[in-house]
Design brief:
Order of helices and strands: HHEHEH
Shape: globular
Distance between the termini: 39 Å
Length: about 100
């Protein structure tokens, strides 16, 4: 849980003025004024059988228009975030062992 808050903090630190809670002047200059909210997409979670097929990015693109009402910006950090997943550990271990055998 602490890692999740750290990621949100890093996102907020880059985009928002800590004194006002609004977008920084630098960020604001690059955005059209269409709202004031910030949508932070933390992660897209799929059941294991659906993982590895590129669906997370597709689903993220589909859900953004549904969630973005009143948002001026959307922030996300692409990539795999659940490194504790057994599936990912198994894949990493199998890659290591196949390299060692080569």
């Amino acid at each position: 849980m602490e890692e999740e808050f750290e990621e949100l903090y890093e996102t907020a630190r880059v985009l928002l003025d800590p004194e006002t809670g609004s977008f920084t002047d630098e960020v604001s200059e690059g955005l059209e004024y269409v709202g004031s909210a910030l949508l932070v997409m933390d992660r897209v979670t799929l059941d294991p059988p659906w993982c590895g097929h590129g669906l997370a990015a597709v689903l993220a693109c589909e859900v953004i228009p549904r969630l973005m009402a009143g948002c001026r910006s959307i922030a996300c950090s692409p990539g795999i975030t659940d490194l504790s997943s057994r599936r990912l550990t198994d894949k990493t271990d199998s890659r290591r062992s196949s390299r060692a055998e080569s």
